[in-house]
Design goal:
Length: 430
């Protein structure tokens, strides 16, 4: 004891680690340090069997089981299980943030917060999923991700029994029942249930337009508006007027065309009232639903024209009057036949003006444009994941439901995605 006390008083460090050459003033400190090299953890929790290298570590851990919180805040009487957490909490009262980022000078209350923030600059993601090898910057994010594999949903709604993988998803869901809209616009009386809704709305006040067209530099506040604008650069015109089959590059052009149709005044067949535009006539016709409606004999659906009714009836009769002259496949609509014929001709009339990729269908082009705009309109109701296509969302939802619709006919193994299924099939053909 006298030798240890003397070493401490004089500042000498006579005990050296043979592995890393680090020195210590006491032999006991060296013994504890050596466990960082050997991996020895002699102190085990009797409740959950987690092991620790130091007795103090075990003591702190045991408070997670017994609920003991011996450290009390002198300002708000809140209690904590560890002194370091209390010290960080006290800073929330003083406003002090002593840990500053050297890259952007943002300040934090704890070194842990600073360390997590630094990963936004370095891109470091040290926490890896052992199942799919996806990496994450935070351990909490990894824990939430693992639930997509296990199907665990620990946060359940008390009202409708719907369950969620995160507490934040449950909190957002509960607003459907309560009607709460905590995110309020500072410029107008509008309120929103989620922060993203408020963020999008604020752009109408600030005039911020972060989405820029790479061809003409025109800017938009929403990715959806940019996607619509990109169509105006297309050589082809994918929007078709149902009345005269004329093609237009955007829905707004089609609207202008419909509103200006007809040099003669348009007359209502029921009451003979006249209108300047088709839009006005169509709006008026809704006032005569019984007189103008063509009713389906199979269901209660009513159509405004005989042509629309005829087209609808094919969904019941299965009639497919439009046949491909190459492979004799039949279709219920002429538009479907036109798209099918491109599989024989190789024609791809819908061209992306950004990367010049070509597509056979306008819907394929719309989906592709989202790779340029970054728009992901399909949002998962179970987690924060967003997808650019409805099919990608359907596939993602299977990670929550556990559904595996693709079954191998050779070994009966099942898969949640067609990609995984086809990759597996190659293992049988090798």
């Amino acid at each position: 004891y006298r030798r240890c006390a003397a070493s401490t008083n004089t500042g000498s460090r006579p005990f050296k680690c043979s592995v890393c050459q680090k020195t210590f003033s006491q032999r006991s400190h060296l013994r504890v340090h050596l466990r960082t090299h050997t991996g020895q953890k002699p102190y085990e929790c009797t409740v959950c069997h987690t092991s620790f290298a130091q007795w103090g570590g075990l003591q702190k851990h045991q408070r997670t089981h017994n609920g003991e919180k011996p450290f009390e805040c002198p300002l708000c009487v809140k209690k904590f299980s560890r002194s370091c957490i209390l010290q960080q909490h006290v800073l929330s009262h003083t406003g002090e943030k002593p840990y500053e980022c050297t890259e952007c000078h943002k300040a934090f209350r704890s070194p842990g917060q600073l360390q997590r923030h630094l990963r936004t600059h370095t891109g470091e993601k040290p926490f890896e999923c052992t199942l799919c090898h996806k990496t994450f910057a935070r351990p909490g994010t990894l824990r939430v991700h693992l639930r997509t594999h296990t199907g665990e949903r620990p946060y359940a709604c008390d009202v409708c029994d719907k369950a969620f993988t995160t507490s934040s998803a449950l909190k957002a869901h509960l607003r459907i029942h309560t009607g709460e809209k905590p995110f309020e616009c500072s410029e107008c009386p509008m309120k929103f249930t989620c922060s993203n809704g408020l963020k999008r709305h604020m752009q109408t006040h600030t005039g911020v337009k972060p989405f820029e067209c790479s061809l003409c530099r025109r800017k938009y506040s929403r990715p959806y508006d940019l996607r619509l604008h990109l169509l105006s650069h297309l050589a082809t015109k994918p929007v078709v007027c149902a009345l005269c089959d004329k093609e237009f590059s955007s829905s707004s052009e089609l609207r202008s065309h419909v509103q200006g149709q007809g040099e003669e005044p348009l007359k209502c067949k029921v009451c003979q009232k006249k209108f300047a535009t088709l839009c006005q006539l169509f709006s008026h016709l809704r006032s005569h639903p019984e007189e103008i409606a063509y009713e389906c004999i199979f269901c209660d659906k009513k159509c405004s024209t005989s042509f629309a009714l005829k087209r609808h009836l094919r969904t019941h009769t299965g009639e497919k009057p439009f046949e491909c002259t190459v492979c004799h496949k039949q279709f219920s609509q002429p538009g479907n036949l036109r798209e099918h014929l491109r599989s024989h001709t190789g024609e791809k009339p819908y061209k992306c003006t950004v990367c010049h990729n070509e597509f056979a269908q306008s819907s394929q082009l719309y989906s592709h444009l989202r790779t340029h705009t970054g728009e992901k309109p399909y949002e998962c109701t179970e987690c924060d994941r967003k997808c650019s296509t409805s099919s990608a969302l359907r596939e993602h939802l299977r990670t929550h439901t556990g559904e595996k619709p693709y079954k191998c006919s050779v070994c009966d193994k099942k898969f949640s995605s067609s990609k995984g299924f086809h990759t597996h099939l190659r293992t049988h053909t090798r």
